[in-house]
Amino acid sequence: TGDLGYEIWVSPEYERRLYEGIMAAGADQGIRNFGMRALLSMRLEKNFGNWYREFRPIYGAFEAGLDRFVKFDKGDFIGRAAALAEKENGPKLTRIFMVVDATTADVMGDEPIWLNGKVVGWVTSGGYAHYVDQSLAQGYVPTELLSQDNLNFEIEILGEMCKARLQMDPPFDPAAARMRM
Question: Is the whole model's pTM more than 0.85, yes or no?
Answer without folding.
Answer: yes
